[in-house]
Amino acid sequence: MACTKLGSKTDAFQRQGQAWFCTTGLPSDIIVEVGEMSFHLHKFPLLSRSGVMERLMVEASEREEEGCIIKLPDIPGGAKTFEFVAKFCYGLKLELTSSNVVYLRCAAEHLEMTERYGEGNLISHTEIFLNRVVLHSWKEALKALQTCDDILLHADKLHVTKRCIESLAAKASTDPNVFGWPVIEHGGPMQSPGGSILWNGISTGARPKRSRSDWWYGDVSNLSFPIYKRLISAMESHGIKQEIIAGSLTLYAKRYLPGLYRRQDTSEASTHLAPTPPSEEDQKLLIEEMDQLLPMQKGLVSEKFLFGLLRTAIILQASSSCIANLERRTGMQLDQATLEDLLMPNFSYSMETLYNIECVERILQHFLAIDQVTGGASPCSVDEGQLMESPSLAPITMVAKLMDGYLAEVAPDSNLKLPKFMSLAAAAPDYARPLDDGLYRAIDIYLKSHPWLADSDREQLCRLMNCQKLSLEACTHAAQNERLPLRVVVQVLFFEQLQLRTSIADCFLVSDSLDSSRQFKSGLVGSTEGGWATAVKENQVLKVGMDNMRMQVSELEKECLNMRREIEKLGQAKGTSLWASVPKKFRFRTRSQICSAQEGSVSNPNNGVGNFEKAKDNHGKHKKSLSLDG
Asked: pLDDT value at position 260?
C-alpha cells in the first residue's frame, strides 16, 4: 500500500481507558471530547493549525469556565480520525494512506486546517496525496472509495467520491494491457521493453497473459450498492459495452442475493456470497435497483440468472412493476430456458396450484408477442419439412417443446383446472410443433390424474393435439389408451392406415428403382457369366412379391371404407365390450403388422398371403404388451 510519512517526532500519545494523554512533560490545558473518547492536549499546537479550534478556545475562555473543554461531536471519522489530526498538529510521525486519506481530508476541511494557519497544513497534504497517488492507481482509488461510504456526505461535498469514481471508470474503460494495470499493481512479473517476462533482469522469452475485460468485476463487488451504482453509471458514460456492464451486475447480484441459487448450486454460491448477506428488505431494494440498471436487451445476461431474479423478487414481494419487467426480460429469451427454470413454486396463499403457472403463462405470452413482431413464420407459408431447418422457427420450436415438458410436469397437480391447462397448451401455435408426441404425453398424464373429467371435457382437451402429427410409438399407445375418447382412438387408427398406405406406395417406387438398377447391372455382367438368366429369375420372384403387396393394398382400401361406414354406427356406446369389438369390426392392422407381412412375402413369394397372415397373428400377440404410459 502506498503511503506518505508526515512529521518526524516520536509518538508521545498514550491511551488510558477512554482517554488519550500527550506525554510531553507539560500539563494539558485543554480537553477535547469526541464521542466517548477524551483527549488531554495543549492549546497552542491545535489553534496554530485549525481555525475552528481557535474560535472554540476563544468562546470557552469567554465563558470563564474551569478547565477548557471542547466538544467535537460531528468531526468526520470520529475519535480515530481526530487522533491522527492531533498527531499532525504536534508534528508526530504519521502515515498518510489510501485507507485514511479521505477521513483526514474531510476532517481537515471540517476543522479549517488551511494554509492560513500554517504552511503545509493538513488540507494541502491530503490533496497532494489524493491527486498524485490515489487517483493514479486502481487499487488505491478503490480503497479510498470504499472509505467514502462512512462519511459520504462530507466526501461528496468535497467531490472526493466523484473523483475516485471517475478515476476508476476511466481505468475500467481502458485496455489494462496498455498501461500494465492491474497486473503490475498486484505483484505481477516485471517485463522487458519487448514484452517478455524478466527473471533477475534476464528475459525468459515468455509472454504475460493478457487481462480480460472483466478483470475489475470482483474488485467493485465489494463496494456498497449506492457507490457501486454511481460507478456503473460513470462507466456507461465512458463508453463501456453493455454486455460488460451486465456481467458486473450479474456478479454483484450473485454476491448479495443468496436466493438466486438453488440447492444444487450451493458450492458455486459459497464462492460468491458476501460474508454477511443483507437483510430481506435490503435484498428487495437491491433487486428493484438491479431491474433499473440492467439494459432491456436480449442475451446480455443468462436466462437462468433472470429466472433467479424473478423467483427471488416474488419471494421477497418486490414491487409489481419490478416483477412485470423481469417477466418481460425472461420472455425475451425464453428459448434459452430449461425446464428447471420454469418450475417456480407458488408462494401465494391465494393460488391453489403447486407451481406458479400464471407467471409462466405471462412469460410465454411475452415471448410469442416478440416472436410475432420479429417476423415469426405463419403455418400457411412454411412447409412441415422445413420446420426444423428454418432459423426463424428454431426458437419457437424450442419453446413449444419446453412448454410440452412443463405441461407434463404440472399435469399431475389435482388442483390444476382444465381451462388453465388448455390455455397454456394452446398458447403455442400449431406450426411450432413438428410432432405432437410431447403434447399427447402431457394430455395423457392430465387425464390419468383427473379421472373425474366428463366425456365432453375429455374430447375438448384432446382436440388440442393433431392426430396426424403423432409418431408410430405415440399412435400405438393411443390406439390402446382407454383414457382417450373413442372418437379420438378411431381418428388415430384412421390416420395410421392412411400413413401406411403412403408408406407402401413409397416402397413400390423404391422397388421399381432397384429393379431397374439390377437389370442394368445384370446386363453388363451377363455377356460373360450368364447374368441375364439370373436377372430373369430375380424379376419373377419380385413380381410374385409385388402381386401379394397389391392384394394387401386393395384389402386396406376396403377396410378404410368399412371403417368410415361403421364410425357413424358406433354413436355414444360405452363400456369394455365396445372396445373389444372395435378391432373385430374394423379388422385393424397396424403399420408394424403390415411391414412384417411384407418382409415375409418378399423373402418367400411361394407362401404368398399365408405368410402375411402368420406374421400378422404373431405381431398381434405382442402388440398387447406395448405401452407408453405417461
From this structure: 85
| Cis peptide, bond prior to residue 182, ω within 30 of zero | yes
Q: Are strands 94-97 and 3-6 parallel, antiparallel or unpaired?
A: antiparallel
Domain residue ranges in the chain = 3-132, 217-373, 390-479, 486-623
pLDDT single digits (tens) 122-141? 999 999 999 999 999 999 99
Q: Residue 363: its pLDDT value, please?
A: 96
What architecture is domain 3-132?
Answer: 2-Layer Sandwich (3.30)
Which stretches of the chain drop beneath a pLDDT of 70?
Answer: 1, 64-67, 175-211, 262-272, 349-351, 375-393, 496, 498-543, 545-546, 553, 556-557, 560, 564, 567-630
pLDDT value at position 357? 93
Cα angle 571, 576, 578; round to 5: 35
- Contacts made by residues 416-419, CB under 8 angstroms, sequence distance 24+: 416/353, 416/357, 416/446, 418/450, 418/453, 418/457, 418/461
Give just the sign of the alpha carbon dihedral 103, 106, 112, 118: positive
Euclidean distance between CA atoms 351 and 537, whole angstroms:
75
* 201 contact partners, CB below 8 Å, separation of at least 6: none
| C-alpha cell belonging to residue 376 | 415469426
Q: Are 108 and 123 in contact (CB under 8 A)?
A: yes
Minimal CA–CA distance to 579: which of 448, 488, 443, 447?
A: 488
